[in-house]
């Protein structure tokens, strides 16, 4: 995790976010629909710069960002002393985030954040991979149990009611694990 250290020239809300981040690590990368993602908000916070600066870069180099995936602007509500306000941000996949970071001038803070971002994407991909592996292991174990139950029923010379019940339970479990293993196409 990346810890924030200084506040530069930021508005009150950003200063509060940074102060909170000093107390606890911020999640730079999250999993959305099975993919590691970050946002322009997280990058601005990590770099200690105005979010508007990051959004301006995305708008300026929009065709380049779109080469790495669809660019979707989203709106987030947040509370201020004056009431609820909204701000636009852009979710970024790993390639888009990496491209954005190449547009930043290297300074000690930028270099530290680049390293933290790379580590966060790597750790998130490893987490996703381990989850997929867990589902594969469960699927293999259930399939093996089903095969063993079939051979037991075959050796007994008849298909008993207990085998049918066990088979149905195992088939339901296998179907559920297969569903979990598939990437989410509709959200």
TrEMBL record:
InterPro entries: Phage_regulatory_Rha. This is Phage regulatory protein, Rha family. It comes from Acinetobacter junii SH205.
